[in-house]
Write a structure and sequence with these properties.
This protein is an alpha/beta fold. The chain has helices at residues 3-8, 10-21, 37-51, 66-78, 81-85, 112-124, 142-158, 170-185, 188-237, 242-262, 272-283, 288-301, 303-317, 323-351, 355-361, 364-388, and strands at residues 26-32, 56-61, 92-97, 100-106, 128-132, 135-139. Strand 5 and strand 6 form a beta hairpin. Helix 11 runs antiparallel to helix 12. 39% of the residues are buried.
Length: 389
């Protein structure tokens, strides 16, 4: 078997090890009251753990909400906690591990170490665990556990959060944005069409017309790619938490395959029919309006070339809680994506680069190198998501 093919087959073999090494996703739901000092103390501890990236946290206030109070009482009665504690006490903590309710802690304020230790113990246990002070008991009633699971899932859907969800901070998302956008920006398919456009307009209309057409192409690509990203983020936000790891695993395999394939030379993954459509549109470009139309078309017909980084980043943005920050980061991603296109147009205009020189930039070996660099960046981010998220 060819060694390049063997290289492409490595990811499926190491994927299981990566997933085993990845940390479990812990979510804690606290039922409390705003006037309860113990609830405030517990809330402070949980918020500290969330800021440290140890878990995610949802607070349910019982004050002024009959629905929340009924839910709280049902959970207490469902697990027989009233018989153990002698009443209904807040705070009440539900520990959700990888999307499943694994533990319930009642009647006390628990330290960060106690909570993390209990979460780990609950994750390893065969049945749901309850903790009241130092006492930990197993809940063997499968119906009670199933009912509790349905209560939690309904609660989190209403809060816009899903079981097993750990949010990403803006700084974490920004750190991942740069390598993914850089990987996308050296997209060989878009680069090949764009340089062909520059050569065509440069020969037929001169530098000024080239600049106007380049700016129209870039603006259209940015707008269409941004709208496509909004749709991808919206879809990803409605998906289960495990989707991000699945996308990361697929991205890692795609990156390894692309690297192995590019060692033989660049071969576009775009279907022949779509390539013919793009080439036909390129030949009809007569000015900025045609260049804008070509840019809009390329945003979709050449998507197979750049779908890996963009899909992964859409999954990342779906884990950023603030909507305004999500779409600001998406805009930043697309600015980096089009930056090389703008830089090339500026270089042609300022340095007087000729069409012959542009032609040399789009050789098969240059495009293959771009694909290898992009795939390496994508693989790095995907490996991090599998190991650290």
């Amino acid at each position: 078997m060819d060694w390049r093919v063997r290289l492409a087959l490595i990811p499926p073999l190491v994927l299981a090890a990566l997933l085993i090494a990845a940390p479990q996703l812990i979510l804690v739901i606290e039922y409390g009251e705003s006037r309860c000092p113990a609830c405030a103390s517990q809330k402070e501890i949980l918020e500290g753990l969330q800021k440290g990236g140890k878990l995610s946290y949802v607070y349910v206030d019982l004050a002024g909400s009959e629905e929340n109070a009924r839910e709280f009482v049902e959970i207490y009665d469902l697990l027989g906690l009233r018989e153990v504690t002698g009443g209904y006490y807040v705070p009440l903590l539900l520990v959700v591990v990888d999307g499943r309710v694994r533990g319930v802690a009642a009647a006390g304020v628990y330290t960060a170490d106690q909570l993390l230790s209990f979460a780990q113990r609950a994750a390893d246990a065969a049945n749901l665990l309850t903790m009241v002070g130092p006492s930990v008991l197993e809940v063997r009633d499968e119906r009670a556990a199933a009912r509790l699971q349905s209560i939690v899932e309904a609660r989190l859907r209403g809060a816009g959060v899903q079981p097993g969800y750990r949010p990403l901070s803006a700084s974490e998302a920004l750190a991942l944005l740069v390598p993914l956008a850089a990987a996308d920006s050296v997209n060989p398919c878009t680069f090949a069409v764009y340089t062909a456009l520059l050569m065509l307009v440069l020969v037929l209309g001169g530098p000024r017309r080239m600049l106007a057409s380049a700016l129209a192409f870039i603006a259209a690509v940015f707008a269409c790619y941004y709208l496509l990203g909004v749709g991808l983020v919206t879809v990803a936000s409605a998906m289960p938490p495990a989707l991000l790891k699945a996308v990361a695993a697929a991205g890692l395999m795609l990156a390894a395959y692309s690297i192995a394939a590019s060692l033989k030379g660049f071969r576009s993954p775009v279907p022949e029919r779509l390539k013919r459509v793009t080439e036909g549109a390129l030949n009809r470009v007569a000015g900025p309006a045609g260049a804008a139309g070509l840019g809009a078309l390329c945003s979709f017909t050449l998507l197979p070339c750049s779908s890996g980084p963009y899909l992964v980043f859409a999954g990342i943005l779906s884990r950023v809680q603030q909507w305004a920050i999500r779409y600001a980061l998406l805009a930043g991603y697309n600015l980096i994506f089009v930056a090389p296109l703008a830089a090339l147009a500026a270089a042609v205009l300022i340095l007087g680069i000729k069409a012959k020189t542009l032609k040399k930039l789009r050789t098969e070996s240059a495009l293959a190198l771009m694909e290898i660099v992009a795939s390496a960046l994508l693989a790095t981010v995907c490996a991090w998501l599998l190991l650290a998220y």
